[in-house]
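Slide 14.
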Amino acid sequence: MAIIPARGGSSGIPDKNIREFARKPLIAWTIELALATKGISRVIVSTDSERIADISRAYGAEVPFLRPAEIALPDTPIEPVLAHAWDWLRMYENYSADALVLLFPTNPLRKIEHIDECLNLYFSSSVDSVFTVNESPAHYTPYWTLVHDENGCVSYFGGQDIRAGYCRRQDFPKKCYAKNDLVFVINPKNLFQSKASLYGVENRVVVLKRIFDGDINTPEDWNLTLKMFSYIFPEGNLIK
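Slide 15: predicted structure.
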């Protein structure tokens, strides 16, 4: 079962989830991709907004409930949102699924193959979660990240003296990865542990190219993601 969380409020971009993006509401791209994924049997949108609910239904998603206000706040973690959806469906429809697929609508740069790869890895490895990442650019890794102390003195992250030398990217001790919030496949039990978490105890990652990394929070993010979208999906680029 796919769950697409779409809160009504957005301080950075008003009505972000339903604002027109490449001639469709932003959320529509995530809904349509989820519906086209064979491994997903239901596509549920969790929202507190009647307007988002109506648009989501128009594009084929189910919106069987409206999210309670207490878990639709700007600082609400995602775990209680998913737990609420899971509990509601079990209570009112006696429905459960083998896995939850979390798809944030604020990153539309995903392909069906990304979801398929995560689902295949999840079911073949018996882990608690699988999620997508991309390799971090060298200047975002701890090996090249700089910090300064209270006196303004600069060192590498972890305290290494900046005079100790410059570590070449090829010599990094380990590769570093960044979550891109593109696809999460999780075991529902993760949400009901003493410490609720998407990840559980055992997890795996699917590494994607960095071009699929996107998260829309600001107008600048919106414009950049739209350009990336038109590059990745030229058939969906209706902007002249």
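Speaker note: The radius of gyration is 20 Å.
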